[in-house]
Design a protein that fits this description.
Radius of gyration: 15 Å
Shape: globular
CATH superfamily: Sulfate adenylyltransferase
Structural class: alpha+beta
Strand content: 25-35%
Largest sheet: 5 strands, mixed
CATH topology: Sulfate adenylyltransferase
CATH class: Alpha Beta
Strand order of the largest sheet: 1-3-4-5-2
Low-confidence stretches: 1-5
Length: 141
């Protein structure tokens, strides 16, 4: 893919990493690169403070070292309560065993680390497609 779309083509795209640390960023990125992860979510408050995804927007996903790893395009965005996230979305996030129970447990832990967890908190559920993969050995952050 990277030969068809060099990183330069995405120079204006927002850049961010999954998760809240280098290890989680790399683990979630690996799921994207192998085709398992096609969705992500964050708290509405965090999205409003940082980057609120929009349908059609292209983003550069960084690895745990802050290097551009791939480009994704947002295909859908929904804001809902934590407890309203369904099994289909949990499956599309591609994490763990892909079950809703695992999704709730792991995301509750994540939001607790952020100090934002509440059963009725609003979350932004984003689905995306992978557009391009970059050769990270040749790229600097």
């Amino acid at each position: 893919m990277s030969a068809a779309h060099p990183l330069e083509a995405y120079r204006e795209a927002p850049r961010w990493a999954f998760g809240d640390g280098p290890e989680l960023a790399d683990a979630l990125l690996a799921l994207v690169l192998d085709g398992r992860k096609r969705a992500t979510c964050d708290s509405l408050a965090a999205c409003q403070a940082n980057i609120m995804p929009r349908i059609g927007e292209i983003s550069i996903v960084l690895d745990g070292a802050g290097r551009p790893a791939c480009a994704i395009e947002t295909t859908s965005v929904e804001v809902k309560r934590f407890g309203e996230v369904d099994a289909a979305f949990a499956f599309d996030e591609g994490e763990g065993d892909r079950s809703l129970a695992t999704w709730r447990r792991d995301h509750q832990r994540y939001f607790e680390r952020q100090g934002t967890y509440a059963e009725d908190m609003q979350v932004v559920c984003e689905r995306f497609k992978l557009l391009d993969v970059f050769e990270r050995s040749e790229i600097r952050p």
